[in-house]
Structure to design on (180 residues):
């Protein structure tokens, strides 16, 4: 079945088409959920919530632009809505002006380790870091998505980078001590 036909069938609540759509896109969207969620179980919950929203709003898709991009936007917004509801961003108003550069020695820092330490960042930092660095959103877009100020977005990104840099430096120092 073509993607367009699948979408049209989903619009009339065809459960077979919905199952097929889930099969085609769930693994990619799960990766997105995992990137923004605290852990695997929360990512699974967020994926289910995202698909409920997708099936609820699929009639709004007008076959303009990438369908996969539309799915991803809904998925990201679903996860972010959970954090907005939890008031993750209400307390913090940090003003960290400096832009932290992270030098990564790829021979010492594996991609798995880097992804793990990003996952371990506090919610507000992880979300902004992923939106800005991994998905290329602007601070203006992030501020609108998370209902925070542009300054808060920038300071959360700077703080995330500081934490990541410190974590990597600590790990490198630990490895250097062990090799002595």
């Amino acid at each position: 079945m073509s993607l367009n036909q699948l979408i049209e069938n989903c619009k009339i609540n065809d459960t077979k088409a919905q199952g097929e759509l889930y099969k085609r896109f769930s693994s990619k969207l799960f990766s997105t959920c995992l990137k923004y969620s605290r852990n695997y179980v929360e990512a699974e919950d967020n994926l289910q919530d995202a698909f409920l929203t997708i099936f609820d709003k699929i009639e709004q898709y007008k076959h303009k632009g990438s369908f996969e991009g539309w799915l991803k936007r809904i998925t990201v917004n679903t996860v972010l809505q959970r954090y907005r509801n939890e008031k993750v961003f209400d307390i913090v108003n940090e003003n960290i002006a400096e832009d932290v550069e992270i030098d990564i020695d790829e021979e010492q820092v594996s991609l798995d380790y880097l992804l793990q330490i990003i996952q371990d960042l506090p919610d507000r930092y992880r979300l902004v870091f992923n939106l800005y660095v991994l998905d290329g959103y602007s601070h203006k877009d992030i501020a609108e998505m998370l209902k925070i100020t542009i300054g808060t977005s920038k300071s959360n990104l700077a703080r995330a980078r500081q934490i990541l840099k410190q974590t990597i430096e600590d790990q490198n120092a630990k490895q250097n001590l062990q090799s002595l």
In short: Confidence is low (pLDDT under 50) at residues 91-98.
